[in-house]
Specification:
The longest helix is centred in the last third of the chain and has 17 residues, at 137-153. This protein has six helices and eight strands. It has 170 residues and is α+β, with helices and mostly antiparallel strands. The protein has a single domain, classed as Bifunctional nuclease domain.
Length: 170
């Protein structure tokens, strides 16, 4: 990312599975611009993000939990994550440590770490302009509420079973 690139703070709305094409996205929101930024992710990353947002703590550390523990064990902290670019349909990100060191990351991993440690998620204004989807005031609030309801019902198994999330019979 070039010097002087403007970053905007975004909210991690949550994970959503499109039932028509079976794709899973994590949805970020730029509240100032009223734009959603959908990022296509895999089921493992979706589970990692959704469970952390739901406050689920696994009995043993999963990969993202382990990475948070390693960062802390070496005396560092995660100060923020940045979605830096969109190249050929792929979102690129960086972990920014307390020391200022930057670590290249997949956007989904960066978001999964951010929701675990509660650090800000920033997005390049250029990425917001390219990938942002308009969110009209009324429907945006309804959509946010549907995502929050989804997060209340989702379990990690929902992303592995192929069933509609939140409708697992068992």
């Amino acid at each position: 990312m070039g010097d002087g690139e403007e970053l905007v703070t975004v909210e991690v709305v949550g994970v959503r599975q499109h039932l028509v094409d079976d794709e899973i996205v994590v949805l970020l929101l730029d509240p100032a611009a009223e734009l959603f930024i959908p990022i296509l992710i895999g089921p493992a990353e979706a589970s990692a993000i959704a469970t952390a947002q739901a406050g689920v703590v696994p009995r043993r550390p999963m990969t993202h939990d382990l990475l948070c523990d390693v960062i802390a064990a070496v005396g560092e902290s995660l100060s923020q994550v940045e979605i830096t670019s969109l190249e050929h349909g792929v979102f690129h990100a960086a972990l920014v440590l307390g020391s200022g060191a930057r670590v290249d990351s997949r956007a989904s991993d960066a978001v999964a770490l951010a929701v675990r440690v509660g650090c800000p998620v920033l997005c390049s204004a250029e990425v917001v302009a390219i990938a942002g989807v308009e969110a009209s005031p009324g429907p945006a609030e309804q959509e946010l509420e549907r995502f929050r309801e989804f997060l209340d019902q989702v379990t990690p198994e929902d992303f592995e079973s192929g069933e509609e999330p939140g409708t697992s019979a068992g």
